[in-house]
Amino acid sequence: MKYRYPFAAIGHRLEPEIFDILKEANNSMSTYTQGIYQSKFESDFQNKFGLKNCIAVSNAVSGIELIASELDLKDGDEIICPAHTYCASAYPFLKVGAKIIWSDINPKTWLSGPDDYREKITNKTKAIIVVHLYGLASEAYKIYDELKERGIIIIEDCAQSIGSKYNGIPVGSYADFSIFSFQSHKNISTLGEGGMIAVTDENSFARMIKQRHNGHTSYNIFPDQHWKPAMSDVRKCYSSSYPSNFCMNEFQAIVGSYLLSKIDEIISIRKKKWNYARNLLSNQPNLLLQEIPENSTSSYHLLPIRINIDISLIDEVFDKMKSFGIQCAKQYQPLYRYNLFDESASDETYNKKLLKNTDLFYDQMISLPFHESLSINDIEYMINSLIKSIQALS
Ligand SMILES: Cc1ncc(COP(=O)(O)O)c(C=O)c1O
Questions:
Q1: Same structural domain for residues 249 and 319?
Q2: Best substitution site from 183, 193, 244, 335 to test ligand 1's pocket, by max atoms within 8 Å of Cβ?
Q3: What is the mean pLDDT of residues 250-265?
Q4: Same domain, yes or no: 211 and 287
Q5: How far apart, in whole angstroms, are the C-alpha atoms of residue 175 and residue 200?
Q6: How close is the Cα of 23 to the center of ligand 1, in Å?
Q7: Nearest partner of 258 among 69, 81, 44, 32, judged by Cα
Q8: Which of ligand 1's atoms lies nearest the C-alpha of 88?
Q9: Is the minimum distance from the CB of 188 to ligand 1 under 6 angstroms?
């Protein structure tokens, strides 16, 4: 079925002028990869959000894989991660042998916050993953000092929250590691895929930047004879993990810098539409909105809504929305219900209940299509359709 409003649409459609910029750059470029535009994008990103040591990568999950390798986990090391997030927040840690401990969400903000993390900390906790889901900055910041004192590594998944702030400070800047995504659906995209990581520790940065590009590390033995050997030592920075190629290309980096210069405007356009939708939804019986804590701001990435009705009726709402031509999504199935994370989850009807707020929110949530090209009329149509769908419930 072709939807009038498909869920996954381009977050921000590229302006025609960018293609002239790319064409011009093509005439003078000396390489299509690992060149001056990548360095420029990294320093632009760093400066814009007050981050340290940025590394451009092919997508956010490749960045998370680099971070996971850098943790150098030992047997039994635990990583705390919200079960209510996209799978990519967590699975790279499985690949390096972590034991993942799932945190619940706050029933009002729908994010894991200070209490949810604190409850799961043990003396085996190596790191926590803070996810600013839907674009909203998590309040986990309130326990960062405590985490740092205990030597717990803080990783922020800012894939959906570029430009969000906590206490006026952009997300990602207080963490040991943070990652951003420029996938097609995100607020800005580097031609469909792309990501950025920020790394606080200089030694980690020095290793990770090499690990991004096949682990290349120069030999010092024949400094004047670069051809001896032509390829550098791919195993020099890590003894136990394998390198990868996680590079983005120069055209993506040009687009990245260009969109970054427009990010405030992009966020403010989204904000207007998001507020408009939320105003229409406020005062609707049975519809609950994500609560925005006093010190948090959002990048207005997605528009999740909780429908406070008997969960046996939720599928009917999705069906009705489908009849109005609107493709809604259910985000995010608790990760402990996936076979990837729990081998007993062998079929699609597996319905493990583990965390009260996570389970209830997933059962009752609906995510409407939300992207920049929706007009105010489109938004009005979608919200009215949702209200009608609920009123028509049998
Ligand atoms: C919360 C979260 N983390 C990580 C990712 C992975 O991003 P990418 O597609 O750039 O690898 C996504 C992508 O949707 C996401 O939403």
A1: no
A2: 183
A3: 98
A4: no
A5: 7
A6: 29
A7: 44
A8: 4
A9: no
The residue assigned the tokens 């009917």 is 316
Q: Is 131 in the pocket of ligand 1 (CB under 6 A)?
A: yes
Answer whether residue 22 is part of any domain.
yes
Q: Which domain holds residue 384?
A: 263-391
Which of 230, 260, 290 is the C-terminal boundary of a domain?
260
Is 206 inside a domain boundary?
yes
CATH classification of the domain holding 290: 3.90.1150.10
By the 8 A CB rule, do 56 and 245 touch? Answer: no
- Pocket test of ligand 1: the residue of 160, 179, 185 to mutate, having most ligand atoms within 8 Å of its CB, is 160
Helix, strand, or coil here: 50?
coil
Q: Closest residue (by CA) to atom 8 of ligand 1?
A: 60
Residue entry with tokens 């040991």: 176
* Mean pLDDT in residue range 182-188: 98
Tokens of residue 193, six digits = 């895929």
> Per residue in 21-41, pLDDT tens?
999 999 999 999 999 999 999
pLDDT in tens, 64-100: 999 999 999 999 999 999 999 999 999 999 999 999 9
For ligand 1, the distance from its centroid to the CA atom of residue 61, given in whole angstroms, is 6
The answer, yes or no, to whether any atom of ligand 1 lies below 6 A from the CB of 135, is no
